[in-house]
Every structure is written in structure tokens, then in C-alpha cells.
């Protein structure tokens, strides 16, 4: 294995607890980490600071910093995650959100503020916003009207994530926001790019909706790995199968492809369901790896297990299909079970 593979440059994209899980895993594999974080949150402390100060919502950025802190249980990491109680003006605010707000006003640049916070926490790698603008998510949601065929437009990340209807499609406002230049550069120069897990419509799909970020993801020579959620989320993806998650991603970015998809083996039973996932993966031109990546008894990824699965995927030769993408050819895929043997599934 080459030097690049023993300490690969890894870019992880997402937001919230999903990105926290990915970062906690990949820091076991390399010190060259760039986190690219969604900036559309409009709820809680982040929403208040966004509305009052006109800044990027800091919550997901703060969580990424904490995940990469030198001492994840040290005093600074615990403090930036600390949330004030009580009923006063500070109630509900995270200390780290306020620190990022102050640094942003003092330095006049959110990326400089994140770099400075990273120095305080002595993080492994770098944390960047997906865009220098605070974005708004808008969704077409069915099932809210008497006629199930009629969709209603729902605006705002919290509203979309908690809707009782079925989300059909999401958009960003503005529709063509600029990407953070440092983020696109990191993707272009990455050895490995990891997308997901996380809230599918509000933390994962938004990355392929920012035009410059989308292009960087399409054209990067880095190995692209998609990590699927362990379960559907109430509201946002209620009733979604693993297969459905892949379909909606393809619908939002038809030309976006990945090399590998990591799926928790306990979430998708062997047999027909895995074949459905493999067929859906064809839209993304991907090879599927089924591995135990769950924290027992929960819907959360286990950092050590996820790190082992990602390490195994990274060490494998790139899927043969990757070299044929430009020709638009199709071929049978491999579905790998666990981290060892494989079974061949063809659906041509």
C-alpha cells in the first residue's frame, strides 16, 4: 500500500450527529481530515444566532470541531459542547456556538473563525462550511393535503426534518449558492471522500445541490464512499428502505456516482432486500459492502466498527466500473458480505 493510502487525505461531508460519527471513525485512520459541514440549520441555538447575527448556523460546525478535538473528553471539548440551562437569554445556547459567533465577528470570516477554534481545540484536520452563506432548505412534501397526489412546499430545515408528510424533493435557497473554496479544493485533492450518514434530505443531499461542490464531487479522483443510515428517521425519511435512500440521492444528482456504499449488515437482511440495495447501487455505479457498523441496540454507528469497515473498503482495489464511467458502460456489481468473503450479484 502506498504512503497516500497509509495516511490518506479524507474529506467527510455531512452534518449533525451523522458527521460526528464519521469524523470519530476516520480520525482512527488518518490525520489528514477535512470536514465539510451543512449550513442550513434554523432551529435552537443555531437558528437564534443565525437570525440575530446573520452568521452561519454554528451548531453542526461546533460538533465537527468537537469530534476532531485532540482530547474529545478534555475540558475544552466538553466546554464547547456545554449547553446553558435556565430560562434566561442564554438558555439553550451552546458555549461553542457563542465562541464561534464571537470569533466570526472579531475576525470577519467564518473560515478564519473555525481555524482559530480548531487551534484552541488542537483538532486533527480542518472544519469548513459547505458554503460561506447560510442556506435555507425547501421541500416538496406529499401527504399533507386531502389529495395525496398534491405536494405542499415546506421551508426550513427543522420544518422539513419534522414534517408528518413524505418528502419528495428538496431545494436550496438560494438555488445556486457559492461553495466554500477551501472545501472544493479539499475534495479535488482528496484520496477518499465520505458522504453520510446523517439526515438524508437536510444533511446529506444538500452537498450535491451546491453547484461547485457538486462538480468537485463528480470530478474528484478520490475514492468516493457513501455510508447509509442505520434506520429511517421519523418525519424526514419515515418508511424509507435502504434502497429508497439511494434512489432519492440519484434523483437529486443523476450524474453523481460513488465507488463504494457501506451498509450495516444488521439493517438489511440477507436475500431479496440486499439484492434490491445492490440494484439501486447501480444508479450510483457503486459496489456495496455489508458490514456490522452499528452500536449494539441503537441506530447509531459505532466509531470503531465504522473505522474498520472504511479501512477495509479503502484497502480494496477500486471497483472495475470506476474506470468505465466515462464510457457509460454497465456491468455486474459485487456485493460484499461483512469484511471478508463476497457474493456476486448480477442484474444486467
From TrEMBL:
Locations listed in the record: Cytoplasm
Major localization listed first in the record, in broad terms: cytoplasm
Keyword Ribosomal protein on entry: no
GO molecular function: LPPG:FO 2-phospho-L-lactate transferase activity
Coiled-coil region: none
Entry-linked CDD domains: YvcK_like
Gene Ontology biological-process entries: regulation of cell shape
Purpose of the protein: Required for morphogenesis under gluconeogenic growth conditions.
The name this protein goes by in its record: Putative gluconeogenesis factor
Organism: Nocardia otitidiscaviarum
Organism ancestry: Bacteria, Bacillati, Actinomycetota, Actinomycetes, Mycobacteriales
